[in-house]
Amino acid sequence: MIQINHQLTPAALLPAVNRLFTLSGEKIRRLQKRWDAAKGTPVFTIKGEYTSRGWTEWTQGFQFGAAIYQYEITRDETFLEIGRRNTVDFMASHVTHIGVHDHGFNNVSTYGNLLRLMKAGLIPFNEWEKNFYELALKASGAVQASRWTKLTPELGYIASFNGPQSLFADTIRSLRSLALGHQLGHKLMGEMDRPISLLERLLQHSEATARYAVYYGEGRDAYDVRGRTAHESIFNVNDGAYRCPNSQQGYSPFSTWTRGLAWILCGYPEEIEFLETLPDAEFEPYGGKKKILARFLDVAEAVADFYIQYTPIDGVPYWDTGAPGLAHLGNYLERTAEPFNEHEPVDSSAAAIAAQGLLRLGNYFKRTGQAEKGARYYQAGLTVAQTLFQEPYLSVDVKHEGLLLHSVYHRPNGWDYIPPGRKVPCGEASMWGDYHARELAVILHRAAKDQPDLRFFDI
What are the structural domains, with CATH classification, of the chain? Predict the structure, then answer.
């Protein structure tokens, strides 16, 4: 269980945040200079160098979004040029990609962040550039929403790249693309010119994820522990019936792949922030705003409590809570995580994603008058960040292209690099782990400076 440090403040972490961005800038420059776009998208490191891995192209937005965040903090226009130019040159195919569930990763991280910076006055206003970003976000939200499996008239989901039968936990954070499309006044147009609400599909997908990917300790199956999650949920597309949990990147359908848990922990509090800003009337067809927000909050609390309880004391989880090698580690939840152990890898990228969710959930309770509950989650997020922003997780070697070490991509497939003399992956980074470490650092930098919260929909 995480030992929450209740004395930590964002200001106390500011030196670590500044150090992170100093290291980050050098790594972005190094990768930009070396990377050949013809090789595809950088995904994770091997021996300190980024490599590609053909599965789906879901990390390119993180590559260029990282430079945009770097500019936001440092105001070094070199990074703005990297982020802006590469968005124009390489991201159009992601806007119209009909084969993936990753639009919120790729396109909100690039077009969305650039539009947000323009509105904030951090880059010069240009009407046509604004229109360009807005059109990309509208199209992205609609394309993402079109990848739809209908279960009932009131329920459905955005299908994963595995096919129409598959709902992934990851997709909850890609709902940002639907949120921005809706905010910009866009709709998906269907057969016979039927308008399809992006908000409706956002809410239906969120409910499907809440109902089937998250457990609440209510006896759903023999492994129903409150807050645990299933990476994948499988349905019969002929009649919409739920069939079973599954896992693509975790150990088993009945254990919790911690990055999938982290996506849900990050996604629901973030969507709560967006939904709070919408007028009550928009929720009337779906049971009312109060009911919707309560459902989102129930999910967020359950997964946050599970993360805190089933993560080592410093806040970095092992890659799956049911991984068989954990049995050899003894009371591993009662000490700090051990990235160099011989049995199971940790996943720092899950920690970076989860920390943001904990901070956002804590902020929600603080602003709604529940200070004690808010402090628990917020301080847990700070505790995780403190661990990640120092060695052995922060990569201080300027020759290593990664920023956040000890990230894991696909343990069952054996894709992660195992150094000589080691038995499990360690010492490497991933594009999503690095991006979310930077995003977490931006959140804390703004908090330390008493600036408004980082919100994806401030466009």
Answer: 10-140+176-191+275-448 (1.50.10.10)
